[in-house]
Amino acid sequence: MREPIALPLDQPELTADLGGGLVRRTVHPSGLRVLTERMPGARSASIGFWIGVGSRDEQAERPDAPGSLGSTHFLEHLLFKGTPTRDAFSIATEFDRIGAEHNALTAKEYTCYHAKVRDADLEVAVTMLSDMVANSVLDADEFETERGVILEELAMAADDLADVANERFFEAVLGEHPLGRPIGGWPETITEARRADVDRHYRDRYDPSTLVVTAAGAVDHDRLVAQVLAALNASPEERWHTDGAAAPVRREQVVDASPAGAEAPGRASLDSPLEREPRVRITERPSEQVNLLIGTHGFSAGDPRRFAYGIMNSVLGGGMSSRLFQEIREKRGLAYTAYSFGASYSDSGVFAMYAGTAPEKAADVIELSRVELRRLADTEISGEELERALGQIAGSTALALEDSDTRMGRLARAELGSGELFDLDASLERFAAVTPEHIREVAATLAARPLTVVAVGEASRSSLESSD
């Protein structure tokens, strides 16, 4: 079986063939890591500046220490708003001048600032992203402006009942675990956020040891490394200079980077019990449908059962031929869409089944979802279902890897997370090794856990009753 590429933190240089793309990696003495994948024939490149800190690493305020809830997402906005040499309009116009697709994202375990550009403009993207990440001034006026923008973003999400259901589901399943918090924060935490606390979060968490730069497409590795180092060393912020020595940081080490005296945010609630009693959580909203999520906590990103878990999700709710789609939509017409998914993190995860349906049909959809999960847990799937799931996974993965954004993200998630980089063949070999019994065992593990039901909409028109 083809082995993944190992990414040890103590190996300064690495070169490998990743399914036709040349992968190179440099671990700089400063802790900075740069990974590239050259894609033959490409005339563009995707580049990301990834900080291994996400919303789960924020700290609630205590009497003896300031809090930082919402700071990670706040920074995602503020880093576009100005540096000592560029204001917000200059940043926008310089990206537009080269036709870049640029944006940022905040996740529960990392933050990324990224751009996709012509190969000839990659150095411009490096200069811009380096300046934003290393030299943001977090201007006080811009801070207040972005407070309003973020509150509007949260309000927009609050109008999307599927988004509301997703947030409520994470809260219900994970409880006080840091992963249970919404990535963007709550309106009250954004309203109360202080610039000094966000600035402290920025200075404590952003430095070369937590930075991973990845690029895929038409990219020269040595040139990119030189460009990134030059840009960081030009920073007026001494913490970004790369002439010192520091150990690079992975997810399991992020807690050790906490400010002195601060609670280790990534581990703070890991001892809290995740096994919970079955519950129904209802959020009443005027709507024509009830958005339903039925599930429990799932598997971590490094769990050895993750390949069986992926196939199980494909069979249960991964496409139009899946069991949930066929039973709920095609046979009974109870919903427009029905699917299942898993979200996996370094030490935990969630599993859920989703459907949007009329309030009067909600109880039937919930029961059908439970029945289909139980059926997977009790009976091995057929060979035809397994073959179809393997084909779906192989095809969708291969198609995704045609895009340089996907390959750029794959490099970063391997580096920040497991330290193992799988090419397509290595992944597919592991999926192919999964048996129907492996899938049944994964489904049985999930079915044995207490299932939480989250309903958002006019649930009062249904027969559902909240257990909270």
Explain what you see.
The protein has 468 residues and is α+β, with helices and mostly antiparallel strands. The chain folds into two domains: 12-257, Cytochrome Bc1 Complex, Chain A, domain 1 (2-Layer Sandwich); 279-461, Metalloenzyme, LuxS/M16 peptidase-like (Cytochrome Bc1 Complex, Chain A, domain 1, 2-Layer Sandwich). The chain has 15 helices and 14 strands. The protein has helices at 71-78, 88-97, 122-135, 140-158, 161-174, 187-192, 195-205, 221-233, 306-317, 323-330, 362-378, 383-400, 404-416, 424-432, 436-447; strands at 5-6, 13-18, 21-27, 33-38, 44-51, 101-106, 111-118, 211-217, 279-284, 290-297, 338-344, 349-357, 420-421, 452-457. The strands form three sheets. A seven-stranded mixed β-sheet has the order 2-3-4-8-5-7-6, with helices on both faces. A five-stranded mixed β-sheet has the order 9-14-10-12-11, with helices on both faces. A hairpin with a 5-residue loop joins β3 (21-27) and β4 (33-38). α9 (306-317) crosses α12 (383-400) and α12 (383-400) runs antiparallel to α14. The longest helix has 19 residues, at 140-158. The protein starts with a strand and ends in an 11-residue tail after the last strand. The model is unreliable at 255-273 (pLDDT under 50).
